[in-house]
Specification:
Blueprint lengths: L1 H5 L17 E2 L2 E2 L3 H11 L6 H30 L12 H10 L13 H9 L7 H21 L2 H33 L6 H14 L3 H4 L1 H17 L7 H9 L1 H4 L3 H4 L16 E3 L2 E3 L2 H7 L1 H13 L3 H10 L14 H6 L7 H9 L6 H11 L9 H4 L1
Antiparallel strand pairs: 1-2, 3-4
Helix pairs in contact: 2-3, 3-4, 3-6, 3-7, 3-8, 4-6, 5-7, 6-7, 7-8, 8-10, 15-16
């Protein structure tokens, strides 16, 4: 939502600070951006197009409903409802599976309106991973973990919920792959006015998370894939835009291998994941690259605070989103850094703790207050808290 509010079609594009209920996208409340996109598709100047409308609903409502159900499952493990053993209890992980798989009867089928069929169809145009197989595998894991969580002792709940959170995040990343693949596939048909509508759609759905990492890159890509393709009868080639998009795959939680190489003509050469090289300091070990993404958690938390989404920001601080502890490990969220023991030689940390001697974990307490707008930050605006 932050990207839509701060982007070209939002009322926050000039850096204006407004209350959450005044944030707009295409002059409509930004909280309902999915509905706004669907309405814009129905009302577009070129007229109604059944296929574009169907894909718009699938890539907005159905996609987001799947993600929402995944995280409802994680939250349910953390909170443990009393009615989980009632006959009419609805397991949110089963809901997510229903949204994704639909009425799919065969693994190889690419027809039908399910997200599974859509991912299968667009994935057949690339050499990348089979996202459906991995998504279903993780859905099974989530289903088992949630059932175990309901009957587990309280002291085991956190670890189960943390594992579920990692699976939910992995599924969301895998679900992002067909969005990007669809954007690349349709961007090769700019000469067809109807096909350009698909480029705009998948640009709207795939690009927004990039603003957390690099707001300038998001702005450029949004102009390339959405504004120019929508407004220009003869839009320029998107080859340069594709290379910039590929260089920001980390922001989307994906990489070149996940997307794969196109088996159709896609100008611009093969996708290459960027190497971490800052002023000559090169991190060659992929394990360290995973840890280095901790800065994206900081950016994400700040973005959510500025959007007046304090609970969502605290969720990232508490659970983590990008900050892994290596390829095979789970998350090492920022809160663990704040509540961990400092090294005896770290005199700065010692002085800090001594100054705030009344607080058990001063860093954690201060960040908590900044995120949630409490204590010294009670009357401060979201941008300052960020």
């Amino acid at each position: 939502m932050f990207a839509f509010w701060r982007g070209t079609h939002g009322n926050g594009k000039n850096g204006n600070d407004v209350p959450r209920d005044s944030m707009k996208f295409l002059s409509k409340p930004v909280d309902f951006y999915g509905h706004t996109i669907i309405q814009a598709e129905f009302e577009k100047e070129s007229g109604y197009d059944a296929e574009v409308t169907a894909q718009t609903i699938r890539a907005t409502n159905m996609w987001m409903a799947t993600v929402q159900s995944l995280y409802n499952g994680v939250q349910m493990c953390d909170e443990k409802p009393d009615d989980f053993d009632e006959p009419n209890f609805v397991n949110p992980i089963d809901m997510a599976a229903a949204f994704w798989i639909g009425t799919q009867e065969e693994e190889s089928a690419v027809g039908g309106g399910s997200l599974y069929a859509w991912a299968k169809d667009i994935g057949s145009k690339f050499t990348g991973q089979d996202v459906n197989a991995q998504i279903v595998q993780r859905l099974k894991s989530l289903q088992i973990n949630l059932q175990n969580c309901f009957v587990a002792p309280e002291e085991e709940t956190y670890d189960i919920a943390a594992n579920m959170r990692a699976d939910a995040d992995s599924i969301t990343r895998l679900m992002t792959v067909p969005l990007v693949q669809s954007l690349l596939w349709h961007s090769t048909s700019l000469g067809d006015a109807n096909k350009r509508n698909f480029v705009v759609l998948y640009g709207l759905m795939a690009l927004p998370p990039i603003i957390v990492c690099d707001d300038n890159a998001f702005s450029d890509l949004y102009d390339d894939y959405v504004v120019n393709v929508r407004n220009d009868a003869t839009p320029a080639s998107l080859t340069a835009a594709r290379k910039k998009l590929e260089s920001r795959y980390t922001c989307l939680g994906i990489d070149c291998n996940m997307v794969g190489e196109a088996i159709f003509t896609l100008p611009g050469g093969a996708c290459v994941d960027p190497q971490l090289d800052i002023h000559g300091y090169v991190v060659a070990n992929q394990e360290l690259r995973e840890v280095a993404t901790v800065d994206l958690d900081v950016r994400t938390i700040g973005t959510l605070v500025e959007m007046n989404a304090a609970e969502a920001a605290y969720d990232i601080y508490h659970w983590g989103r990008f900050s892994r502890i290596g390829l095979q490990g789970g998350y090492y969220p920022l809160q663990k850094y704040a509540t961990g023991d400092s090294h005896p030689s770290n005199t700065v940390a010692t002085a800090f703790s001594n100054h705030f001697a009344a607080l058990t974990h001063p860093s954690d307490n201060i960040v908590d207050d900044a995120i949630l707008g409490k204590g010294a930050f009670d009357s401060e605006n979201p941008r300052l808290r960020r």
